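2024-03-11 09:14:02 DEBUG pipeline.ingest accepted 1 chain
2024-03-11 09:14:02 DEBUG pipeline.ingest length=366
2024-03-11 09:14:03 DEBUG pipeline.predict start
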Amino acid sequence: MISDARQARSRGLWMRAVSFTILRELLAFAAQSSKGLRAKDLDAVAERLKTPSGRTPARTTRYHYRNILLNLGILGRRAGRYFVQHQDPLVQALLRALQPGNPELSLDERYHFANLVLRNADCQAHFFDLFTDGEPLTDLDLFIRHGQPVAWRVIAKQEMTSAERSAETSSRMPVRDRCRGRQRKRRTSPPSPVRIWNLSNGRERMLTLEDERQAILYGVRFWARDELGFLDEIFMERYGNVMFPVEIHGSVPDPRVIEALQERLDPEQEWTFFSVRELAWELCPALKIPLRRFFATLEALYHAYPAWLMWIPTSSHIAAFAAPSTFEEKLQLRSYFRDPWGRYISHFWANVRLREVKPWTIPISA
């Protein structure tokens, strides 16, 4: 039996890792019907679609697509049929922006999907409210402007308090096992708990249930970071993985990054030494820019002035030496800049002559 406390904590945890390009295609298909669609009609469309990685959604995943569109208020359900919520202004804005058939979401599609996600009460209660001091930020522009960095990390068993260990033990789920032809129950060990906390005000949440991990870490966090691009994440040893709001559009190279680098060059020295991650940590959350734009700006600066930047590469093993698992190793390596030769760059030297560079003279691409 699942306890009442566990059931209460699991409510509202319907978010799962999905492709928003497939959500877009399902919405575009549903918008063509005035009489509504059955679940099997939407499933038949989803079966013909592929994610950006080339996968076809499995049966359970097809259910999640329908459920997510329903919970985000994009679709409604009456008499067993699904209808587009045309009367909703946010849905209307998304419908006007739809570009079905494109392999990626457009900026407008991402913007309107992001507003629908931020508006959702479950997404706010389980995740986005941690990025604020109190009042929820349900508008994307306000969230990017005022959202605060939030860290998360897996808690090792030796770091857990006695109360956390007790909760972790009670959350173990019984499963069926076979032993000498008979069925018996055994208890599985759940994954280690995850702590999520606001770096400014200390507000925190502990994830101890698998449903919480799936919905929050691999669901709504994945939507915001990978699918819609209004959150980014950097690994810092003293905190763990730190999430922060970022603009979903901007130029490459970013002149603000170049200007910030110039300000940090020592005018009394020919060369100034920088840690790539420390510089990214200092600039990206403050300027609201994603890591990829920061890294692309460094690369563009190097191509324009190769004699004034010297990369210091490191191996992937050294870069992620503290990672306890392959999953966390990938997270840590994501925070490293890779040069055109595929090397991980941990530090670099910058020449004082870069102070003379006019940031806007370097070719900019959207």
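2024-03-11 09:14:41 DEBUG pipeline.report Residues 16 and 296 are 30 Å apart (CA to CA).
2024-03-11 09:14:41 DEBUG pipeline.predict end
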